[in-house]
Amino acid sequence: MTTGTSDTPIRLLIVGPNGKMGRAMIQIAACHPNVSLAGGVGPKGCSYCGMDLSQIAGLREFTGAIAHDSIKGIIDACDVVLECTNARTSIEYLQTCISHNKALVSGTTGFSEQERALFEAAGKNIPVVLASNTSKLAHIFFDVINYIAARVGQKADIDIIEVHDRDKLDAPSGTSKEIGHNIAAVLGKNFDELARYQRMGSGIRPKHTLDYTSIRSGKHNGRHTVMFGFDNEHMEVSIRGDNMLPYAEGMIKAALFISNQEPGCYTIKQVFAADLS
C-alpha cells in the first residue's frame, strides 16, 4: 500500500461527497498535508456529477478532484476508499475494493452479523477499517462508561438514550450498540439477554436491565447518554457531536493508518491507539 507522507500523499476517494459526512471529509482532506483527493462517487445520475469536490463542500480553492456517478471510472486513481453510506451499498463498495486491491475505511452502521463477517473475510485480501464511530473523544467516552459499569453496573438500571436526525436509517445507532456490548462484556452478561428496546404498554421494569431509547428528530448531529439508575440517585454521562468534523478527522486518520498496513480487518481503537494510550 502507498504510504502517506508530505512527499507522497495518499489519494482518497470519497463516497457520498454531498452528504454531511462526505462534505466534512472533503473539508478535512483538502487541507491535510499527507492526503490528496482523487475524486468522489455519488449515485447514478447525481446532480453534482462532474463538479469539483470543493464546490460540493463549499471550499474556495478547487481540489482538482471530480465527482463521478460510478466508482469503476475512478477507483484505480485512489489508494483508499472512504464511505459512510448504508449496509447494502457498503458491501457493494467492499467487493469493488477487493477486486481492485484498494484499502477501505467504512463508517457505515446497521450491519448484520453475516455482513460484518464479510469485512472480516475481506481482511484476507485488503486492509479494512470498520468503525461505528470515528470520533476520538467518543472512544474516551466509551472508556468512562466501561469504568463506571465495572464499578457499579451490576446494581444499576442502565439506559442508553440516543438522538439522531430523522434521516438516520438504523436504530439503535451503531455507537449505542457498541456501548451496550461493551457494558455487557464488563458485566459478564449476554448482550442479547440484557438489552431491551423502547418500552410500551404497562408493567414494571425488571431490575438491572439495559434499556434502549432511540429518537429520530430534525437535524440532530447525534447525542448519546448513558444513565445509571439506583434507588436514591442516578448518574448520567453524555456526548454530543456538534458537527461532523470530529468523525471526518477520524476517517482521514484511519485512511492514513491503513495505508501503512498489510491486509487485515482493523478497528478504530487500533487507529487511535497512540493517541489514547
Task: Write a structural description.
This protein has 277 residues and is an alpha/beta fold. It folds into two domains: 10-134 and 244-276, NAD(P)-binding Rossmann-like Domain (Rossmann fold, 3-Layer(aba) Sandwich), CATH 3.40.50; 136-240, Dihydrodipicolinate Reductase, domain 2 (2-Layer Sandwich), CATH 3.30.360. Helices cover 35% and strands 22% of the residues. The chain contains ten helices and twelve strands. The chain has helices spanning 20-30, 53-57, 87-100, 113-122, 136-152, 174-187, 191-194, 245-258, 268-271, 273-276, and strands at 10-15, 35-41, 67-68, 80-83, 103-106, 127-130, 157-164, 195-197, 210-216, 223-229, 234-240, 264-266. The strands form two sheets. It has a seven-stranded parallel sheet, sandwiched between helices. The protein has a five-stranded mixed sheet with strand order 8-9-7-10-11. Helix 3 runs parallel beside helix 4 (113-122) and helix 5 runs parallel beside helix 6. The longest helix is centred in the middle third of the chain and has 17 residues, at 136-152. The relative contact order is 0.16.
